[in-house]
Design brief:
Number of domains: 1
Helix content: 25-40%
Distance between the termini: 38 Å
Number of strands: 9
Largest sheet: 7 strands, mixed
Order of helices and strands: EHEHHHEEHEEHEHHEE
Bound molecules: S-adenosylmethionine
CATH topology: Rossmann fold
CATH class: Alpha Beta
Radius of gyration: 16 Å
Structural class: alpha/beta
CATH architecture: 3-Layer(aba) Sandwich
Amino acid sequence: MSADASPLDRTEALSATVVDHPFVERVYQKMAGVYDYTFGPTLHPGRLDAIRRMAIHPGDRVLEVGVGTGINLSLYPRMCQITGIDLSSKMLEKAQARIVSKGLSHCRVSEMNAEQLAFPDGWFDVVYAPYVISVVPDPVKVAREMYRVCRPGGRVVILNHFKSANRWLSKLEVAISPMTVHIGFKADLDLDGFLSQAELTPISIEKVNVPRMWSLVTCVKR
Ligand SMILES: C[S@@+](CC[C@H](N)C(=O)[O-])C[C@H]1O[C@@H](n2cnc3c(N)ncnc32)[C@H](O)[C@@H]1O
């Protein structure tokens, strides 16, 4: 496991906590059975806001990065094609079962690392990462891959918790981050540093969920 305080410069590291892929995969293999109960209803309003921000058109190709148990799959309009990818086979088993049980024939899922997406440049109209960017070891690499596979004029949408602008709350988030990684996320990811290193210029950043501690970041590819 690697989930320690990082000696790296904070701006560079974006979080005081470092994780690697095997650690993240193990966490989600274990969480697959309980994920929908623990992170289902509380994070759902943000998922609904994100669908609206995607401005999906009939026939659009949509990529969901970190599709997990497929909790978003029934939210997408049926007249588009949804591809979901995830690192965890156990989370994907749940997603596949959901596709079958709900008859979601416009959705397919496969095992893939978000840092190396096996899709051509510009393949998707919308690329979406719900509650994933603070989970992965290298958020900037994932964001760059998302941008690469999005077509010019398409949307890159990121829904995530980022470190608070409040001084005391942010100190708390840095302190608890080595613990929250064990339930799947870093609590202290720096939004400004992330956007600047990933070279993303959002058209909007909205606060979502209750309390409004999560950010919905919408970008249009140039
Ligand atoms: C917090 S869950 C989000 C699930 C779902 N998107 C949602 O809205 O609740 C994060 C998901 O990201 C996946 N994940 C973590 N690292 C990944 C990576 N490098 N590539 C692809 N998926 C990854 C995890 O396995 C997990 O299923």
